[in-house]
Specification:
Shape: globular
Order of helices and strands: HHHHHHHHHHHHHHHHHHHHEEHHHHH
Largest sheet: 2 strands, antiparallel
Strand order of the largest sheet: 1-2
Number of helices: 25
Structural class: mainly alpha
Radius of gyration: 23 Å
Distance between the termini: 26 Å
Number of strands: 2
């Protein structure tokens, strides 16, 4: 009775509390989303400039799209988000991440629709999400027929999404007193990304600086190799972000030998952790040799090239062709760029198997690439090795260490959960794709390629048919779009908001 006496009436409870829900800082979520939309509208200045320069006729559609996005962004930022408290709780970080990653690509469909580049809303959503998630799967059968401004916009969406939209928020919003770390962790979900500076905002700013410098260097290098300006811009944006959008049907076959060498080099660099690249550019070379993830990346890269070269040669290709294609194939696959060139006359099934495995493994943690990530693979292998060692020495105590630092058991459990969910998403996505009419090999290839954010690659076609996204039914395209987003957010952020415990008070 005493308990009932002091208990507040149901009607006096907060509406969130009545249903056992947490109170969310909706104003801040709206403000952050609006800010991102404003910057997105501003970023369309480059595609617009290219459109005006080339007179491709897409300038009015780009301006109209930018105005709509700008107005929506200003409304969310200054009206809905007015008076927002710049404090973000841990659980809210996942909500912000999902909202931003849905809102930005959704608004990104406007240029495709207004220019007439894609007539279907489903195709526009597919292309936009493929761009921002740096997947690169495309429903554009002949990209060379698109307006130059739209091609640059299409590639620039990959560059924007390369390091991650949340890192852009952290870099520009210094007012975020509490919550920047959660956004940082949500973007690098489960990878324990290393910071470049004790202050998070400065660390993220340095990441963007490295990212921008590498992009500019590649643009200049491609121009010096004789690549046209529009192609150089698009390929640089798509390569450094490990996106994979191409400007011509033949992929990178439009590049000469020098241009192809430049693209291969930057694909290789883009698959490396940004923190490692920072150490390289700041001349901290001694620390590079002690980094286990970098050593593993290099070992897998060169061993795969060696095996693929020998395999290509044994099926009848000359050594020059075998080496040339193997280097390009491995760089494109490990970085999850997914670029392609005409394949050799004789194809080895072993190359397809190696390529498929590398797609699942992916690039380094903290890079713009997708996949499970090398750091997770290293930790899992060490854990399994310790397990078998304990079978021989039951009383021995072993800790999994990476670069001499112990890895917490909770993090190892999180990796096991991630790998299980990753495989489950591939199997589930492939199952639905088979119901849409795809063959089992094609369905597995498409599901694995898109959740690994390596969409356009025809390198694994010999395991099935042709990864043709243009003629897929609408349901299949929506399933692949979900896989792209799940792979880019690394599953946890996407799953968290569908968990009942997430919506209830702790």
């Amino acid at each position: 009775m005493l308990f009932l006496k002091h208990r507040r009436p149901f009607t006096e409870l907060n509406p969130y509390q009545q249903f056992g829900l947490r109170r969310f800082n909706l104003k801040l979520i709206a403000r952050l989303t609006g800010m991102m939309l404003v910057y997105m509208a501003m970023s369309m200045a480059l595609p617009l400039a290219v459109s005006l320069y080339t007179r491709d006729g897409a300038q009015f559609a780009l301006v109209f799209s930018a105005i709509i996005i700008l107005m929506l962004g200003l409304f969310l930022q200054n009206f809905v988000g007015r008076g927002a408290e710049y404090e973000l709780k841990e659980n809210e970080s996942y909500w912000v991440t999902i909202i931003v990653w849905l809102a930005i690509p959704a608004c990104g469909t406007l240029p495709y629709l207004f220019t007439g580049g894609l007539a279907s809303f489903t195709d526009a959503v597919f292309e936009s999400f493929s761009g921002f998630t740096t997947t690169g799967s495309s429903v554009v059968s002949k990209p060379e027929e698109l307006p130059a401004g739209l091609l640059v916009y299409r590639a620039f969406t990959q560059w924007i999404g390369g390091l991650g939209l949340m890192l852009f928020v952290v870099a520009i919003l210094r007012k975020l007193t509490n919550g920047a770390g959660q956004l940082y962790e949500a973007e690098f979900s489960g990878t324990q990304q290393r910071k470049l500076h004790p202050r998070l905002a400065r660390s993220v700013t340095r990441m963007w600086a490295i990212y921008s410098i590498i992009t500019l260097v590649m643009i200049v290098a491609l121009l010096l190799c004789g690549t046209p300006l529009v192609d150089a811009l698009c390929l640089a944006f798509s390569t450094v972000s490990t996106g994979g959008f191409v400007t011509h049907t033949g992929g990178l076959s439009i590049l000469g030998a020098k241009g192809l060498a430049v693209a291969t080099l930057f694909m290789f660099l883009s698959g490396i952790n940004v923190a490692i690249l920072y150490r390289f550019f700041t001349l901290q070379w001694r620390r590079l040799g002690r980094d286990e993830e970098l050593r593993t990346y290099l070992a897998i890269f060169f061993i795969s090239i060696l095996v693929c070269t020998v395999s290509f040669h044994t099926v009848g290709n000359d050594w020059t062709t075998a080496i040339h294609y193997s280097v390009f194939n491995i760089a494109s696959t490990m970085s999850t760029c997914g670029f392609y060139i005409p394949k050799p006359a004789n194809w080895s099934f072993l190359v397809s198997v190696i390529t498929f495995i590398l797609i699942i493994v992916g690039a380094s943690a903290g890079s713009t690439g997708g996949g499970i990530k090398l750091r997770r693979i290293i930790i899992l292998l060490k854990y399994v090795g310790n397990y078998f060692t304990r079978m021989l020495h039951p009383n021995a105590v072993f800790r999994v260490k990476v670069n001499g630092e112990p890895v917490e058991n909770d993090y190892i459990n999180k990796i096991f959960a991630f790998v299980f969910l990753y495989i489950a998403f591939i199997v589930g996505g492939a199952f639905v794709l088979t119901l849409c009419g795809s063959s089992i090999p094609d369905a597995i290839c498409m599901a694995a390629a898109n959740i690994s954010n390596l969409g356009p690659s025809p390198l694994i076609n010999n395991l099935g048919g042709n990864l043709d996204y243009t003629h897929l039914p609408h349901l299949a395209k929506w399933i692949l779009t979900i896989l792209m987003l799940a792979g880019r957010l690394e599953l946890f952020a996407l799953i968290a908001i569908f968990s009942p415990a997430y919506w209830r008070r702790g």
